[in-house]
Each structure stands twice: as C-alpha cells, then as structure tokens.
Amino acid sequence: MVSDGDAGDAIEMLRRASRTGTQLSGGLIIDRERVSELTNDLIVSQRNNIESSKGSDNESARAEGVAEKNMSEQTTAESKRESKHESKIESTLGPEITGIQIGSGQAAQCASLDEHRAQICECQKCPLGATRTKFVYGVGSPTADLMFVGEAPGKNEDLQGEPFVGRGGQLLDKILGAIKLTRSEVYIANILKCRPPGNRDPQPEEMEHCFPYLKEQIAIVKPKLICSLGRISAQALLQTKLPLGKMRNQWHFYQGIPLRVTYHPAALLRNPNFKRGCWEDMQVVEAEYKRLTS
Ligand code: SF4
User: Out of 63, 155, 194, 273, which could bridge 132 as a Cys pair, Cβ 3.0 to 4.6 Å?
Assistant: First the structure.
C-alpha cells in the first residue's frame, strides 16, 4: 500500500511532469496520457488510504466505546454491591459509626471523673454558661457497666446540679428499679451540662461545644452498654438525624459500645402510651447487661 505522503509526492511529481514535458527524475519518458492515468491511480490509492484510516479510527472509537461501557457497567455493579452491603449493616446494627463529628474533643486525658469535672465545671464555651444556675456534670458509679445518656438539664436539674431529678428523675429511678438496678450502680449524664432556657431543644452549636465532655466521660467510665434516653441523645451519639421510632428496637454501636435507644422519661410523663415500649426496651437492655456482666 502506498502511504499518503508518498502518494501525495508522486501525484505532484506526475502533475509537474505532465506540465513540463513528461520527463521524470530517473530519465523515464512517458506521454501525457500515461501521466494522467498514473495520477488518477495514485489519487484513488490515496483516497482508499484515507477511507481505510477512517475505518480504522472508527473501529478504535467503537472499541473504546465498548470498553468504556463495560467499565461503566462494572463500576455501577460494584457500587450497587457496596450500597447493598452498607444497607445490610445499617439494618442490623444501625448506622456504622466512623467517628463523631459533633465537637472535636479528644479522648479523656483525665484519670478520674472528679478531675475531669474540676477541669470543665467553669465552662463558658457557649451562651448557656452565662444563664445556668448550676453546672450539671453526671451522677452514679465511675466504673458503671451501664450508662444512661439524656439530653440536657431541666429546671430542677439546673437548681440542684444533678441530672434526672424531679418527676422525670423519679420515673428513671423506677425504670432502673424494674431492671433491678439503682442510680448508684449505673452512670447518668446528659449531652449538655447547662440548662437551655425554657427547656428548649439544644442548639447545634451548643451540642458541638458540649458533646466532647460527654465523650470524655464515656472514655473515663468505659461502660459496656449505653442506653440513650430520647431522640436528641441518640442522634448525637449515633451521628444521625433519624427519628426516635427508626432508632428503637435495634442495636447500635457508639465507638464499639452496644447502644440501645428508648424514650426520655419526660416523654413518658407526657404520653403514658410510650411506657409499654420503654418497658420492652428496658427488658432488652437488662438481658444484654446481664450477659455482658455475668
Ligand atoms: S452547655 Fe456545655 S459548652 Fe455550653 S457552657 Fe455549659 S458546659 Fe460549656
């Protein structure tokens, strides 16, 4: 096959020969008609080369397209497989915890809860520090295997400086009694250490500042089991926006610690219909607590 460059040169040489008297560089003499025939042959040959080259380009493009399509289908299949696997994890264990993003507190550097409390009790990191009556740290056994986490101090807690006092606290004591435990055998703390005015929900920036303290408390106590009391506590610990109903009735994990979600005692006071569900949750907590501590 004549290359495009060679054919082009030959055509030009033949045309020049045709114009100038038909003597070519090698001394070959041919007539004008033969020059014209040769020129046409070379033009046809050059066109064939171009068509063949286009065909080859098209083949390559088609091959690349097929390869891309295959890769795309493979990637989609892989991502579907991963997504299926993740939703399987989520349906059995709840959202996989890869690190709490609320607050950036490091694991506790303090050896004891008393030391930790002394370090943070004057905190003014968020506006609630200016409006609190008392800082509400936590209560119970510093080596408890079971830890309860609520949302924030209310009016009575703010006055007394202890979590879960007043009617909600009395109900929590009854719940503990139902699973044969007392307040001094477990540990109880809140996400926030200061009372939000009017018992409103904690603001995201308040949680962001205060959550590291709870994280440090958990690191010091090292519970084997955590029970979240209410939606806000569970959402913060599990780093999710799921409603309470979607978090109950399944096991979750906070940094490897099994976690169960139930109603906040204040919600039980507002709606006694929730008590049955809470009782069922606590039976599961009791069974797991016994299994982990026996
Ligand atoms: S709520 Fe927490 S972050 Fe805000 S002032 Fe009180 S202890 Fe500090």
Answer: 194
Task: Verify whether ligand 1 is closer than 6 Å to residue 209 (CB atom).
Answer: yes
Count of structural domains within the chain: 2
Do 222 and 162 belong together in one domain?
yes
- Provide the pLDDT for residue 203: 96
Distance (angstroms) between ligand 1 centre and the Cα of 260 equals 26
- Residue 124 Cβ inside 6 Å of ligand 1? The answer reads yes
Measured from the CB, is residue 189 less than 6 Å from ligand 1?
no
pLDDT band at 157, cuts 50/70/90?
A: very high
Least confident of 21-30, 82-91, 117-126, 285-294: 82-91
Q: How far apart are CA 237 and CA 221, in angstroms?
A: 16
Cut 0.85: pTM above it: no
Please tell me the distance between residue 192's alpha carbon and the centre of ligand 1 in angstroms. 6
CATH number at 158 reads 3.40.470.10
The secondary structure element, H or E, covering residue 79 is helix 32-93
Q: Quick one: pLDDT at residue 33?
A: 56
Contacts of 262 (CB under 8 A, 6+ apart): 227, 228, 229, 248, 277, 278, 281, 282, 285
116 lines ligand 1 (CB under 6 A): no
What average pLDDT does the segment 59-88 reach? Answer: 45
223 and 259 in contact (C-beta within 8 Å)? no
pLDDT at 94 over 50: no
Q: Tell me how far the alpha carbon of residue 125 lies from the centroid of ligand 1, in angstroms.
A: 6
Residue span of the structural domain in which 33 resides:
4-91
In a domain? residue 108: no
Tell me the pLDDT of the chain averaged across its residues: 78
Do residues 27 and 82 share a domain?
yes
Q: What is the DSSP string of 164-178?
A: S-HHHHHHHHHHHHH
